[in-house]
Amino acid sequence: MTAQVDVRLLSDIQRYGAADVSACFSCGTCTATCPLVSEDATFPRRMIRYAQVGLRDKLLSSKELWTCYACGECSESCPTQAEPSEFMAAARRYAIASYDRTGLARLMYTRPIIGTLIAVILAAFFALFMYAAHGPQSTTSLDIFGFIPEALIHDLGIVVMAVVFLAGLAGVATMVRRLGTANAVTLRAVVGSRAALRRSAGALWSALGVESLGQRRYRADCDSDASLAPWYRRRWFLHASTMWGFLGLLAATIIDYGLALAGIKATGTPVPIWYPVRLLGTVSGLLLLYGVSMLIVQRYRGVERSVRHSTAADWTFLALVWITGVTGFAIELALYLPSAPAWGYWLFLFHVAVAMELVLLAPFMKFAHAVYRPVALFFLALAVHE
Ligand code: SF4
Ligand code: SF4
User: Rg for the chain (alpha carbons), in Å?
Assistant: First the structure.
């Protein structure tokens, strides 16, 4: 089969933040330096080469694109300052936009002003939509669901989740099709026999449990600041803290909803701090807020090579997560005040609007890597277990 050449590939990827890799002369120093390179995954030199010669399909079918953790070590060693680390980050943004059929991810990444406007308009839309159905503001206790009906938030949440699920599924299906063809992995090879199922279960555990939740290679191999910073300021911990916090909050929300359905506790009822689901939510919220605040500070300072280049979409995503976390804690505090502050109601409206927007935009921004990376790691683990 003849490979199609896209002559605009390199310039296209540069719109997603890549430095000018035309200076790269394929010496391979970056690949030799990268702590995550293995026999089954060689990068970044090969990825750069694909872009230079216009092999778009090869690039988008590479699981290696997602096994890089952006530590920046390769850029330190590049003799021509071609910034291979930044190229990998930009190529991942390009891949997110290419897997997305709506074109929204492309807009968010390549048109910063329009992307920011979309974010503002979406939040305003959600806020106005909910405000249109608002109820009274009790002054004795902060009755947030008396102000914005819980049923409305629930129904809106279902619609948002459905859109996100469909958009995410379409993106993952495109990626799986590409990776499956490129790596000669068929459905039969994944689930076609007992041996195949065993191998797939092992690969799934490796991708989700060991690498994604446990951050094994990030911790062990790609922790370039290991000797310079205490554990709580290392990149892997900030990344993990944000992810664990997010997953914990998701679990707390689902459990809280389950308790309400079972008639055990109505959503939003004040409970003591040691109440298990509240404790889970509080600890998770703190983890998320700590992780994302430190990531913002690191990006702002730009001292480390790994975060020196940020796109407007990266900032938008971090800002939305941070705003959701801070306003969530402020509302929790307001719930326990002796009388209901009026600001508590407006903050709640703002919090829900931003949270809805964050979820809705998730498949079109940096968050998408939380889905695409485990898929690539699954294919990588399958190759290793062969
Ligand atoms: S990016 Fe730099 S280190 Fe890597 S192959 Fe090109 S010139 Fe060599
Ligand atoms: S940024 Fe780090 S993990 Fe990514 S290719 Fe460079 S050295 Fe490897």
Answer: 22
Out of 222, 224, 305, 369, mutate this one to test ligand 2's pocket (max ligand atoms within 8 Å of CB): namely 222
- What pTM was estimated for this model as a whole? 0.89
Reduced to 3 states, what is the DSSP secondary structure of residue 260?
helix
- Report which of 97, 6, 83, 2 is spatially closest to residue 48, judged by C-alpha positions: 83
- Residue 240 CA to ligand 2 centre (angstroms): 18
Residue with tokens 């994604």: 212
DSSP bridge pairs for 41: 38
Is any ligand 2 atom within 6 A of the Cβ of residue 295? Answer: no
Distance 46 CA to ligand 1 centre (A): 10
> To which residue do tokens 């690969």 refer?
203
Query: Which domains are assigned to the chain?
Result: 9-98 (1.10.1060.10), 104-384 (no CATH)
Q: Can you give the pLDDT of all 386 residues of the chain as single tens digits? A: 567 888 999 999 999 986 778 889 999 999 999 988 887 778 899 999 999 999 999 999 999 999 898 888 899 899 998 999 999 999 999 999 999 989 999 999 999 899 999 999 999 999 999 999 999 998 888 888 889 998 899 899 999 999 999 999 999 999 999 999 998 888 888 888 899 999 999 999 999 999 888 888 887 767 665 556 788 888 889 999 999 999 999 899 889 888 888 888 877 677 788 889 989 999 999 999 999 999 999 888 876 666 677 788 889 999 999 999 999 989 988 888 878 788 999 999 999 999 999 999 999 988 899 999 999 999 999 887 66
